[in-house]
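Sorry to interrupt, but I need a hand with the structure work. Please put the record directly below this note.
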Amino acid sequence: MHTAFSELSSLTRTIERSSITGEVKSALGLVLTVSGLERAVGIGAHCLVQGREGPVLAEVVGIDESGTRLLPFGSWDGVRTGDPVQVSHSANEIRPDDAWIGRVVNALGQPLDGKGRLPEGNRPRKIRAAPPPAFERRRVGERLNTKVKVMDVFTPLCRGQRMGVFAGSGVGKSTMMAMLARGAQADVIVVGLVGERGREVQDFLQEDLGEEGMARSVVVVSTGDEPPLMRRQAAWTATAVAEHFRDQGKQVLLLLDSVTRFAMAQREIGLAGGEPPTAKGYPPTTFAELPRMMERAGPGSGAAGDITALYTVLVDGGDMEDPIADAVRGIMDGHIVLDRKIAEQGRFPAVNLLRSISRMLPDCHHPDEYAIYKAARRAAARYADMEELIRIGAYRRGSDPEVDSAIDLAEPLDKLLSQGKREAMDASETFARLHGALSDADIVVEAP
C-alpha cells in the first residue's frame, strides 16, 4: 500500500503544468545567460534548458541587467543560443524514506546502486533548510560509544556534537569513517561522499564499509568529475536525509567527506556567478555557507533525536591555517588531527593526541575516566617534549622520574591505540586497559 501511494505521489509531481519560458542568450564556460526569466525566478531556482541532447537541469546563480545566469547539474553539451528555458516546477527538495537505509543515492536523491526504484516518503524535505532555532535545542547529550579506542579516550564524541577531522590525503580519513559507521552507537548512519574519486567509491562501500556498515547506512555520493552544483548539493542532501531520521526520534551519525571539496564547489559556483575572490580565491558565500550547513547538525528539540556529525577537512601539507580549515575549526565542537608522520610509523588511526581536542571535555567523561585521560595525556606530552633527546640518546634514564614513566608508557600506549579497521572495543574496556598501562609505568592516576 505504501509503495503504491509513493508511486502515485511521484507521478502527480511529474504532470505538466503551465510554465514561463525564456531563451538562451550566451554560454561562457559553465555559465549560461538566459533572457526572459528575470522577473520569474530567484537565486537558487531550478530551470530546464531544452538542448539538442535533451533537457538539462540548471540552477539560477545570478541575476542582473544582462539576464539570468545558470549553472548545470549536468553538461551544456548540445545547448545553443535560442534554445528554450523553462522554470522547473520541481522544488529543490527530496522525500527520504526509511527504505533508503542500505541504499546509495546521488545528490538529487536518485538511486546509484542498481537495486531498483527508490521509495519516496510522504513528507517533502528541503535540500537547503534552516538550522533549528538555538533556544529550542537541547544541550549536547551523553557520550556516544564509537568503539574507536583513541576517540573514546582522547577525543570523545557526545550525542549532538560536531567534530572536524583534519588530515592530508591518504592518511586514513575514509577508513576511520568506515570504522565509525560499523561500530558507533547510533540508530542510522548517513555518509556523504562529496567530490570522491570515482574508483574509490566501490572500494569504500564494499571493502571499508562492508555489509555490516551498509545495513544501517544511507550513502550519498557525488564524484569529483561531476559539476560543482552536484558536489555542493551532495552535502546538503546528506544533511537533509539525516534530518529526516532525526525528526523520527532516532540518533543519527552524519559522516561528511569532505568539507573542503564542498567549499571548492561553492568557490566555483560563486566565481561563476560573478562574486569577487577573497582568501585563496574563495568568495564570501563560501564562508557563509559553511556554518549554514554545519549548524543543521547537532542536538534536536522536543521528541526529535540528535545529529552527531563528523566533517573531514583536507589540509595540504598539514596547513591548519588554511582558510577553510580555520573557518571549520571555529564552527566545530572539537577537532581530530590525523598526522602523516604517525601514519608512516604504522599506527592507525593516526590521531595526533596532543593536537586533537574535544570541547565536550570534561563533561563527556565520568570523573574516573577523566582522571585516566589527564594522566595519559600529560605523560604523552612529557614524552613529546623529550622525544628528540631520547631518540639520539642524549637523555640519561634516572634524570627525571616523570620522563622515565612517560618512556615506559610510550610503547604500550602506542600498541593500545593501534586499531585495525575491522576491530572494535567498548570504551569501558579501553579505559580499563589504559589504566593498567599507566599502573605498569608507575604513573599515578589522581583521584577525582
Q: What stands out?
A: The chain has twelve helices and 18 strands. Residues 14-18 have pLDDT under 50 and may be disordered.
